[in-house]
Design brief:
Number of domains: 2
CATH topology of the largest domain: Rossmann fold
Organism: uncultured Desulfovibrio sp
Order of helices and strands: HHHHHHHHEEHEEHEEHE
Largest sheet: 7 strands, mixed
InterPro entries: SAM-dependent_MTases_sf
Shape: globular
Number of helices: 11
Helix content: 25-40%
Strand order of the largest sheet: 3-2-1-4-5-7-6
Protein name: Methyltransferase domain-containing protein
């Protein structure tokens, strides 16, 4: 994309603090967070182009809530970072300057989830991990998982991704060492402040590893957000780790698995079907999910021995 360095005559002011226009545009372009193809399809389709898409976003996007890519939601970002609004700073620029160091993010998945976290997560008022991590949606799961810990004599649990630990922190970990891991460093640091006593937290990428040893690895609501390629990388990481049992979300009524929709970044998966073909799990907990008016009543947490994978 050719770098625009000036604005058309009808775009004399950008909604951010004083900074030369060229510098603003360069910051966004160099961040790699402006998806021109996405922006054209969502906001400029059928319109006569009067300015480059990036300039259009910088001028009109923050005021109208236009997204620069699939994951960064400016209006949500301003809810969680109101200082950007009071300082009259373009929310994307505020994010780039304050939270995202380009060289420190190791993968596109890391970049995507970092943006999602700083825009308020996956929705839901109780947890940034979404409504599926609410106490209500885990009311059946929690006591059943405690029974699993006893059944398999679990003394150490690795939870990846741990999110904000909303539901897991309501469980009894007496006699069990808990370690939460997540790809978003800012989230991990926040967890250390809120829940550091008794819990340990690490920045971990399930697709890249390495993973610390544990009796059980929890990956609830993880694979549903990953592509097939990423899931196979995660399974390889798990197989090469010192972990005895592996727990993951599976939807037993799902009859065909589809690769990740990059727009919604979620879909149900049945891990016993192609392309994964995992064997029947050792244990299966139906969560009694009521999300989406009961559409996902088949949502389960399945437990396998890692040697089964």
């Amino acid at each position: 994309m050719t770098m625009p360095t000036s604005l058309p005559l009808d775009c004399e002011e950008l909604p951010i603090y004083p900074m030369p226009t060229a510098n603003q545009l360069r910051m966004v372009e160099e961040s790699g967070l402006f998806d021109e193809t996405w922006y054209r399809r969502c906001y400029l389709m059928g319109r006569t182009a009067t300015m480059p898409p990036l300039v259009h976003y910088m001028q009109f996007g923050p005021r109208k809530g236009y997204q620069p890519n699939r994951h960064f939601m400016p209006l949500n970002y301003l809810r969680f970072h109101p200082e950007a609004l009071t300082q009259n700073i373009n929310p994307l620029l505020h994010y780039i300057q304050n939270f995202r160091q380009v060289t420190e993010l190791s993968s596109q998945t890391d970049i995507d989830f970092h943006q999602i976290y700083h825009c308020g997560g996956f929705g839901g008022n109780e947890s940034c991990s979404g409504t599926g991590s609410s106490l209500r949606q885990t009311a059946t799961l929690r006591p059943e998982l405690q029974k699993i810990f006893l059944k398999y004599t679990i003394k150490s649990v690795l939870d990846v991704p741990c999110g904000d630990c909303n539901w897991i922190s309501a469980m009894d970990f007496t006699g069990i060492t808990y370690t939460g891991g997540d790809i978003v460093e800012d989230l991990i640091e926040n967890n250390k402040i809120k829940l550091g006593r008794g819990f340990s937290f690490l920045v971990l990428d399930l697709c890249r590893g390495p993973l610390p040893a544990a009796d059980m690895l929890l990956t609830r609501d993880c694979f549903v957000h990953l592509s097939f390629e990423e899931i196979f990388k995660a399974l390889a990481t798990i197989k090469n780790s010192d972990i005895n049992y592996f727990a993951a979300t599976t939807f037993t009524n799902c009859t065909k698995n589809y690769d990740l929709d990059q727009i919604t970044r979620w879909r149900p998966l049945n891990l016993c079907l192609p392309p994964f073909n995992l064997p029947a799990p050792s244990d299966l907990i139906n969560e009694n999910c009521t999300e989406n008016a009961g559409q996902y009543q088949d949502k389960c947490l399945a437990i396998w021995e890692v040697t089964q994978l």
